[in-house]
Design a protein that fits this description.
about 45 residues, elongated, ATP-binding
Length: about 45
């Protein structure tokens, strides 16, 4: 898991997803949203 970006609303990570067969993997991005009740955040 590698952090690739961070902003006011979220942090983005890069990692590899291993399919059940374990014979195939794919690079994916995960976006972790920060907790917020901000109206601007909700609209996004």
């Amino acid at each position: 898991l590698e952090e690739v970006g961070k902003g006011g609303f979220a942090t983005v990570y890069r990692t590899k997803y291993l399919y059940k067969s374990r014979n195939f993997q794919k690079e994916v991005a995960l976006k972790l949203l920060h907790t917020s009740n901000n109206e601007e955040f909700i609209k996004e």
